[in-house]
Amino acid sequence: MRNFRIVIKFLLLLVPFSFFGQVYQGKVVDEDNYYELNNVSIQSIEHKEIHTITNSLGEFTLTKPGKYSFSKKGFISDTLIISTKKFIVIVLKKIPENLAEITITTSNLPTKLKSYDGGITIVNKSEINLQNNTNIAPILNAIPGVLMQQGTLNTNRITIRGIGSRTPFGTSKIRAYYQDIPLTNGSGESTMEDLELNAIGKMEVQKGPSSSAFGAGLGGNIHWIPDAVQLGLGNQTNTANMIYSNTKKDGYRDNNQLDKQVFTAASQHFINNKNDLNFIVGMVQSKAYIPSSLDYDTYINSPKSAAYTWASAKGNEDYKKGLFGISWKHLYNNKLEQHTSVFYTYVENDEDRPFNILAEKTNAIGIRSRLISNTQILQKETQWTLGFEFFNDLKDFQTFENLYQDFPPGTGSVSGKQLSNFSENRKYFNLFFDSKITIFPKTKLHLGLNWNKTKYDLKDQFYQGILSASGHYSFDGIISPKIGITYQTSSQTMVYATASHGFSPPSLEETLLPNGQINTNIKPETGWNLEIGSRGNLFQNVLFYDIALYQMQVKNQLVARRINNDEFVGVNAGKTDFLGAEAALNFSIYKTSFFKVFLRNAINYYNFKFKEFIDLNQDFSGNDLTGMPKFTYNFTLDTQSTKGLYGNINYYFVGKIPVNDANSVYTKKYQLLHAKIGYRKNFSSQFQADIFTGINNILNEKYAAMLQINASSFGNNAPRYYYPGEPTNYYLGANFSYTF
């Protein structure tokens, strides 16, 4: 197995010239998306009597040049020489183990982790770098409540608290964003493999319905925040971060090659003390061959094989994507600000499949805007936000016969006559309100509301008259409320309780009947999530804990019913009860000024059952939810040295998983052990390097890395449930960055 990867990173600093009067001004921001930091203590080193703090906008004014210290609880103090009269932006980094002080940047209201009323996990840059830099799965599987299965680098399924586990292919019912740009299309499918991990500065995973933040998806959302240069000078400070990567992989299995190129650029521009602009550009070009799933005998005896039909057709996905976004942040005053983002995405995908050849193009545009205010209502400190999100997805796709069987072996896919020609227009509109009210000094009340309108238009450009599948479907507007309360039990610990409503509309494909007509009787999945939890730091920041108990009942469960080989229709088939518990326990085992050792644990217990589930006269009520284990455990032992050396060991256990609704087939439980060591060093203020090597699946465990849920048997063939996981394998990589 050959794995080759190049990553090149350029960091640009553009410094214009502009002068103030005889004072020295600037602002202090945190490393996460440049949120302003108030109450930062600024102390002159030479003159003890000179002391000030930043205001609510993170701004400060000094009357003398000199050497100053900048400090705030939960952040690493910094000392800088202030000598220029240009407006200066100072970035403070958070103390890594003091997680309760971290600000949730993707929340509509700037909120500390220790006062957030729901399940959330924040993964910082150093944790992202723990893995092999090409695969998202180990990062997500280290998060409580998240399970990612990955058949290949471009074939995966992500579930949050069990939502989306029965999706036949890909990830659905979970919203994903890169900054404010959706990675979720108009059908509700999210594509995480489009991301270049080296371009990510932080990830936030909100678990369960978060109706007042990013729609009301049942599973929650994953929000990726781009990396940025954390230094800036000039009153119109500009920073840019550009990354190019090229990944080539032969793959463990037959018909498993990958050639992928990704270019990502993000820039931030401090226009003045009231206006910031962000630009994001991403380009992906990928050619990935698809080995597909295997039946049990082949999975056990010949795991390197590709499925016969996919190997014969040389099945593959030729994929191109561009995404572009502009975000504007404006401060009206110290009590009101506005955030607006406009985005455009383009996708071109050609997929050779044994049953047909697909050619599709998608153009999507959207806008997201919100007002944020901090005020007094009835003498109670109140934060509120009011905003909207609009998304319009235009998709054209055609299918053609695949004549590979009519040609000599080894020819691969050959396009035949056209089978279909459709145009889809998919729109959704979210109007949301969120608020946080300090009803007592230690108690905050959270109230949120979301209204969603979703509609699909399908135009059949192949058949006319009674054969035409053209149609229109508009779901009734859905109102999803949320209420939560938090109580600060101490300065470092809290408890919370929340109730939130969510829904997942069927994709347009799920609304189609076998004859191609739109099924106007199909309904969205809906449910209420009830949750209690606690998080905080104990023993002087030695232990960070985050525990949650939750229950969600989903009705009108959407079922993907297989009607042919790799073809499905959607139906509403019943109710499912999601009852679970999760915990994160992170220990600072050893810490000196030169060396640190951390232990991170993620523990999940899933008791997910079909409450009422009847499909085609088969009663599955009381069975375990398909595609989910009862128990998972993940721990990472992480070591870091100020000299640049670092390393980690990661252990991951997954219990047995039912692979069909009847629960007649389960996978075996498995455990994986990975390790990585590296050397990261700043050789100068301009040049940085990171060289690393690692080994995956040290125990050489045989396991199913992904499952084809409810796979059916056609003819005399056994069901193809299994995507074999890779055996022991090694990797070597290097990242280089240069600042101009």
Can you offer a commentary on this structure?
This protein is mainly β. It has two domains: 16-96, Immunoglobulin-like (Sandwich), CATH 2.60.40.1120; 101-739, Maltoporin, Chain A, CATH 2.40.170. It is built from five helices and 46 strands. The chain has a 21-stranded mixed β-barrel.
Give the DSSP E fraction (strand runs of 2 or more residues).
over 45%
Largest sheet: 21 strands, mixed, barrel
Calculate the terminal CA-CA distance, rounded to whole Å.
37 Å
Please give the share of residues in helix.
Answer: under 10%
How many strand units?
46
Number of DSSP helical runs: 5
Class inferred from helices and paired strands: mainly beta
Low-confidence stretches: 13-21, 229-236
CATH class value of the largest domain: Mainly Beta
The CATH topology annotation of the largest domain reads as Maltoporin, Chain A
The best one-word shape is globular
Provide the number of structural domains.
2
By CATH, the architecture of the largest domain is named: Beta Barrel
Mean pLDDT: 86
CATH-defined superfamily of the largest domain? TonB-dependent receptor, beta-barrel domain
Q: Report the C-alpha radius of gyration, rounded.
A: 26 Å
